[in-house]
């Protein structure tokens, strides 16, 4: 797919982080951009910034876990711009879960699944039929993570499970689009290859009341800055990937019609090989042992 001036890109989770970086990058290509996010004030700032830079922007406050909210987003996007060519189902949250899996608050799972899994499905159902009916080349990018998408980090198991689901959902979407001989492609994005400075660590700021914790946390939430400081104090230097690099990777992946938007990483490759070997050998998942012992 060629990205050309006048096309339309929809990005969820677009008020900050990877989503905003992708919206900026699409706007730089001359695309009209539809920004969707649950955080209204941040969304208004992002839309204003892009508009000041000359982009044609439509911003809507959307809860991707609410099907009607996403369907309304599709309606307003098509009513305003007449078409959608790129859909980035990018909105995501951490879960806030702590302790062993059997100790988790069920609402941590419900909230994470509502956004990270149902949010992607709602985006597919709201936009893909219209993209297919339009007959023009298009592309869907679903944001996963190395945590879960490649192998789980058991200390963040809720998030990992949701991101594993995104990979399988996107594989299925790819197969269905191919079966239709559609001009619409699909990709699964693994942001990286290193840590990213995003608002994911403070996801709880946007947690809906319907998914409120049923019991208080035993430990306070830790910000990215606090985690980074703790890592440095322990003698571990943390490397970060700029979100702008992720956005550039997405644009190049779309134009190359690349399904696996998976940046080169020795660490990721080791995980993939270790997990694959474990399955092929019918062996225990030894690649998890360092986490199991924590």
How are the SSEs ordered, and which strands pair?
Layout: E1 8-12, H1 17-28, E2 32-37, H2 40-52, E3 57-61, H3 67-81, E4 86-89, H4 106-134, E5 138-143, H5 146-149, H6 157-179, E6 184-189, H7 224-233, H8 243-255, E7 260-261, H9 266-280, H10 289-292
Parallel strand pairs: 1-2, 1-4, 2-3, 4-5, 5-6, 6-7
Q: Can you give a write-up of this model?
A:
The chain has helices at 17-28, 40-52, 67-81, 106-134, 146-149, 157-179, 224-233, 243-255, 266-280, 289-292, and strands at residues 8-12, 32-37, 57-61, 86-89, 138-143, 184-189, 260-261. Strand 2, helix 2 (40-52) and strand 3 (57-61) form a beta-alpha-beta unit. Helices cover 47% and strands 12% of the residues. With 294 residues, the protein is α/β, with parallel strands linked by helices. The protein has 2 domains: 8-263, Rossmann fold (3-Layer(aba) Sandwich); 266-294, no CATH class. The chain is globular, with a radius of gyration of 19 Å. The mean pLDDT is 94. It has a 7-stranded parallel beta sheet with strand order 3-2-1-4-5-6-7, sandwiched between helices.
């Amino acid at each position: 797919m060629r990205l050309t001036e006048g096309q339309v890109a929809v990005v969820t989770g677009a008020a900050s982080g990877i989503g905003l970086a992708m919206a900026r990058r699409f706007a730089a290509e001359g695309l009209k951009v539809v920004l969707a996010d649950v955080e209204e004030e941040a969304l208004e700032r992002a839309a204003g910034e892009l508009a000041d830079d000359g982009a044609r922007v439509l911003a809507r406050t959307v809860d991707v876990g609410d099907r009607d909210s996403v369907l309304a987003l599709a309606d307003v996007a098509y009513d305003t711009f007449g078409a959608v060519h790129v859909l980035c189902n990018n909105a995501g949250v951490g879960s806030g879960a702590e302790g062993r899996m059997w100790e988790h608050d069920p609402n941590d799972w419900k909230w994470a699944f509502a956004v990270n899994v149902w949010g992607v499905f709602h985006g597919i159902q709201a936009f893909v039929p219209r993209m297919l009916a339009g007959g023009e080349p298009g592309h869907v990018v679903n944001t996963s993570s190395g945590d879960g998408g490649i192998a789980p980090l058991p200390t963040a198991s809720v998030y990992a499970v949701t991101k594993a689901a995104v990979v399988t959902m996107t594989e299925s979407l790819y197969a269905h689009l191919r079966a239709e001989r559609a001009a619409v492609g699909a990709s699964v994005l693994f942001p990286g290859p290193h840590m990213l400075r995003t608002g994911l660590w403070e996801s709880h700021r946007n947690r809906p009341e319907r998914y409120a914790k049923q019991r208080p946390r035993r430990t306070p939430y830790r910000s990215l800055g606090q985690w980074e400081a703790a890592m440095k104090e322990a003698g571990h230097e943390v490397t970060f990937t700029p979100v702008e690099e992720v956005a550039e990777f997405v644009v190049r992946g779309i134009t190359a019609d690349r399904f696996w938007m998976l940046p080169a990483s020795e660490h990721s490759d080791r995980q993939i090989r270790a997990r694959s070997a474990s399955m092929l050998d019918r062996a225990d998942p030894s690649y998890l042992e360092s986490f199991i012992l924590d």
